[in-house]
Amino acid sequence: xxxxxxxxxxxxxxxxxxxxxxxxxxxxxxxxxxxxxxxxxxxxxxxxxxxxxxxxxxxxxxxxxxxxxxxxxxxxxxxxxxxxxxxxxxxxxxxxxxxxxxxxxxxxxxxxxxxxxxxxxxxxxx
Length: 126
Fold this sequence. Notes:
Blueprint: E1 3-7, E2 10-12, E3 18-25, E4 34-39, E5 46-51, E6 58-60, E7 68-73, E8 78-83, E9 92-99, E10 113-116, E11 120-124
Parallel strand pairs: 2-11
Antiparallel strand pairs: 1-3, 3-8, 4-5, 4-9, 5-6, 7-8, 9-10, 9-11
């Protein structure tokens, strides 16, 4: 069974850091476009970052540029999201998503996602 599993969320103070992991089983993440999305209470899900399956080009939402870094480790079949200088407005459930092999670019639209993880809660609060 193919699935994505996120981990690494938690409670952190403003200015702190977290690293989220997205591990795949049943399929390989190599050559797939992978995106991180988030959804805060009462808001729509939005794309945070993306790493393309074609050439590992990365893409970030404007408010995350300079603070978040997406990367992949093909040997571990895992994609990471390093989040630094966290703010209270970063509080949300974070989801990783994999596109089909046909879609290999960034940004990743939700309509192009073939697999979603279950989400991991990130709370930024003093």
